[in-house]
Amino acid sequence: MIVFPVPATTTSRFAVAAERVPHDLTGLLRDAGGPYAAHIAGRLGSPHLEVVREDLASLRWDPRDIMAPRPEDRRRERAFQDAPEFAVITTCAPITDQPRAVQVARAAAFHLAAALGGVPADLVTGHVLAPPAAERARFVLADQWLGDALPPFRANGRCTAPDPDRDPDGVNGCSCVRLRTRGLRRFGLPELQITDVACPHDLAALNVLRTAARHLLTDHWAWLTTGPADRVRALDTALPLAETDFSDFWGAGRRIHLAPPTPFHVRLTPVTPRLLAVSPPDDFTGTVNDWLYGDTLPPGMYDLIHSPAAPQAA
């Protein structure tokens, strides 16, 4: 079993970079519309929703650490890093108020970005937020909550390992890829990572992390509804993952039917109290790359990088 502490509260921060940020940010937010308008108005000025203006001289964080998760977001990355002023939105809320608290805070960030012509970013994931810049009423983990971005394929040309489709030895030709979530901690869970992955298997590894994250989050919220007497959780090291976990990650209106429909398993191993490693199950005898390249995983995990349903934010 894996035992980890669950915090009573968690803190998340978002920032909006702009050429000019007024001092009266609360006034701008009181004009917010949409499904979170009442929540924004009711939480403003409390620890659940604090908004401050900052400039480069007063920042306690470095805008240069905020990156683009996708190549098409590079222009937004540069605009964020080069901006002279920022609106910083902070939410410190009980773990039982998630995910509503972070959705309200991000909705406020999106509203300020639209009002100021600025670029919003998530300071927990370290990523600029890509359009559509609106917070949907229903929580969907795939909506930029995990910091789940692929690294440059083939390590930007530095990796020269053979491709497994051309050379069977290429299945384990390299171990360039390490993937780690950045965002589960705001819901009171440890982050997840998978390591020693060969470049051609990066998407399969990413979808394993996504599926495991969604399963753990669903189970975590079910545990919180029981009103546990203490703030310590125990997890089995063997984690079964199913088709529904992968579908629920995307929040798809239709199910993503994967074959085989039977669950597949991963093993969780504590690295630190706030980080768990994801690896093949104990009864798998090959490497992590043999596992990712073989027929153990559902086929859909090898080609889905964006939501197949592409639902509109609402």
Describe this structure as you would to a colleague.
This protein is an alpha+beta fold. It has helices at 25-29, 37-43, 74-82, 100-116, 202-224, 243-250, 288-293, and strands spanning 2-5, 9-18, 50-55, 85-94, 119-122, 127-128, 177-180, 191-197, 232-235, 238-241, 264-272, 275-279. It folds into 2 domains: 8-128, Alpha-Beta Plaits; 153-302, no CATH class. The strands form 3 sheets. Strands 3-4-2-5-6 form a 5-stranded antiparallel sheet. Strands 7-8-12-11-10 form a 5-stranded mixed sheet. A two-stranded antiparallel sheet has the order 1-9. Helix 5 (202-224) packs across helix 6 (243-250). The longest helix is centred in the last third of the chain and has 23 residues, at 202-224. The two termini are 39 Å apart.
Quick structural summary:
The protein is of the alpha+beta class and 314 residues long.
Structural class: alpha+beta
Helix content: 10-25%
User: Strand portion, in percent?
Assistant: 15-25%
Shape: globular
Q: Keywords for this structure?
A:
single chain; 314 residues; alpha+beta; Alpha-Beta Plaits; 2 domains; 5-stranded antiparallel beta sheet; 5-stranded mixed beta sheet; globular; disordered C terminus
List the helices and strands and how they pair.
Layout: E1 2-5, E2 9-18, H1 25-29, H2 37-43, E3 50-55, H3 74-82, E4 85-94, H4 100-116, E5 119-122, E6 127-128, E7 177-180, E8 191-197, H5 202-224, E9 232-235, E10 238-241, H6 243-250, E11 264-272, E12 275-279, H7 288-293
Parallel strand pairs: 8-12
Antiparallel strand pairs: 1-9, 2-4, 2-5, 3-4, 5-6, 7-8, 10-11, 11-12
Helix pairs in contact: 5-6
